[in-house]
Automatic annotation (TrEMBL):
GO terms for molecular function: DNA binding; DNA-binding transcription factor activity. Keywords: DNA-binding, Transcription, Transcription regulation. Pfam families: HTH_1 (PF00126), LysR_substrate (PF03466). It comes from Rheinheimera tangshanensis. InterPro entries: LysR-type_TF, LysR_HTH_N, LysR_subst-bd, WH-like_DNA-bd_sf, WH_DNA-bd_sf. This is LysR family transcriptional regulator. Signal peptide: none annotated.
Length: 295
């Protein structure tokens, strides 16, 4: 066992008090210990440092030259330990950290601009990296720390990680303003017959997020185009005879017309998800607060 392994913080505090008071009884009273407990700690200190440290002198003790040499180092060591235990004070105005957020272009278009405006005012030195969401590697990306936080839907988020609902979004059925098959009000059965566009980040699926909603209405829809981004889907919708369901925060769009359905449009939660090791991190908590504040 090394000397460091034999040393504990209580012994260092006792040593500092003995160097100051030169009296075991006074040190015992100050530390709330018995004089025997102080004597036991001194015995251990002598063994650790291989020096007597203190010798009897009158009604007290006198420090050895070696003990006197320890005084300065001891003050630094105890101060360092006190700083180690001190609460972390987070100041947005001075932080120069880098924070990485992963999300689809939906959040990049609808939330991130206002979020960055707010952050820029309060944390001008903070660097933020926005990355495209990759659902299949999301858990590993959060685990490795390559991203700090993701904004997504519960269906794409790892269920084992902490999350926070930011808000509930509503889909809106839209089509090109030039699509003559579209009426301002339509039934779900009519919409199901129109070729449709879906957004499937990274996977290229043709099912889309609201297939179950159509099935609940007793209809199957025909999806012919799948895009990785909402911006691409919007552009495509504006130029052909398809329709699609777009988050309402991306609307209105001058290229498109909205369609009112007899059934309530489906909704979905937008959540923030992160690794549990970051739950108590002051910067991480502050970022989540700013996201909630702009929604």
């Amino acid at each position: 066992m090394t000397a460091l392994n034999r040393l504990d913080i209580k012994q260092l505090i006792t040593l500092k008090a003995l160097l100051r008071e030169k009296n075991l009884s006074k040190v015992a009273a100050q530390l709330g210990l018995t004089q025997q407990a102080v004597s036991d700690q001194l015995r251990k200190l002598r063994s650790t440092f291989n020096d007597r440290l203190f010798i009897r002198h009158g009604n007290g003790v006198q420090s050895t030259p070696f003990a006197e040499q320890l005084a300065g180092k001891l003050d630094l060591a105890i101060h360092a330990l006190e700083q180690l235990l001190a609460p972390v004070v987070f100041d947005p105005a001075t932080t120069a950290a880098t924070f990485t957020i992963s999300c689809t272009d939906f959040e990049q278009l609808s939330i991130i601009p206002q979020f960055l405006q707010r952050v820029r005012q309060q944390a001008p030195l903070l660097r933020i990296s926005i990355r495209n969401l990759v659902p299949d590697t999301l858990h590993q990306d959060l685990l490795s720390g390559s991203i700090d936080l993701a904004m997504t839907t519960p269906s794409l988020a790892p269920t084992t990680l902490p999350s926070q609902v930011l808000y509930t979004e509503t889909y809106q059925c839209v089509a090109s303003k030039h699509n003559r098959a579209i009426k301002p009000q339509m039934r779900v059965a009519e919409i199901a017959k129109i070729p449709q566009v879906v957004v499937s980040p990274a996977r290229g699926d043709f099912t889309g997020a609201i297939n179950a909603w159509f099935e609940d209405q007793g209809h199957r829809r025909s999806v012919i185009y799948s895009f990785p981004t909402f911006s691409a889907a919007l552009a495509a919708l504006s130029t052909n005879d398809t329709c699609g369901f777009i988050p309402s925060r991306l609307l209105p769009d001058q290229r498109l017309q909205s369609i009112e359905l007899e059934a309530a449009a489906p909704q979905f939660d937008v959540i923030a998800v992160w690794h549990s090791r970051s739950s108590q991190d002051p910067l991480h908590q502050w970022i989540r607060q700013q996201l909630s504040a702009v929604i």
